[in-house]
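name: query_chain
kind: protein
chains: 1
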Amino acid sequence: MEDWEDAAFSSRHMHNRVGRNSGKGGGRSQRGGFFDVRKTFGSFTCKCVAWEKTLTTGEVQASGNSPVLELFRLTGNGQGIAGRLSLPGMLQASVILAASRKSLQTIVDNLEAQSDESGHGGDGAPSLDEHNGMEKDCDVIDALGATDTRPEDRFATFEKNSFRSPKFWLQWCGMPTEIPQMGGEGRSAPVETGSGYIVFSGNDCRKFDGTISCTSLDWDNVAIRGHKIASRSASDMPILWSSNNSAL
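structure:
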């Protein structure tokens, strides 16, 4: 990891503690005022060079749709953001964003605990230091849409890293389409998890830069960029952290 990434993810604060102003601008970023996690909710059209290169070589046929990241709401514990990522012809996945590796690991651990309690088994959540491309069974994310009796409190206490812009660790779970060999057809790979991160350009959360990794696609922190094409309020759209036998 580059030095700037270490610095970017090493400083944390509670985003709505506006009374603790420090320095010029009172804690505001250059764009978008104070950070409000609800500004992340919406649809982002994405650009991924690795995806585009694969399409141009004819290895994968897309549906004609563009890559899209959809962010819907907070996770049940209020420490993450739940959404979906679509890279047509290559990857369809559920995603979780969190402000720290610890928060992200906690969310995944909770999902795995639900899997164990429901009798689906599982060998525990992967360490975030080892999870790039690890294949594993996942379970339905009931918690992603969990209700909270004090939703405003959840928004007010959502944690984010602060290094000039909102930054989030990302973990996805889905079924990539394996690259076909010798002119053959692509096929769905086993359910897989992978990692990445997203850096919004400002607190308005209109644009982001980031990376995504996927072992079966031979992607190691490939670049992905996005800009918002539609905002939304928190949505109860069903999201699945899918097992091999569950539809995404």
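note: The beta strands are 12-14, 42-47, 68-74, 80-87, 91-98, 159-163, 165-176, 192-200, 207-214, 219-231.
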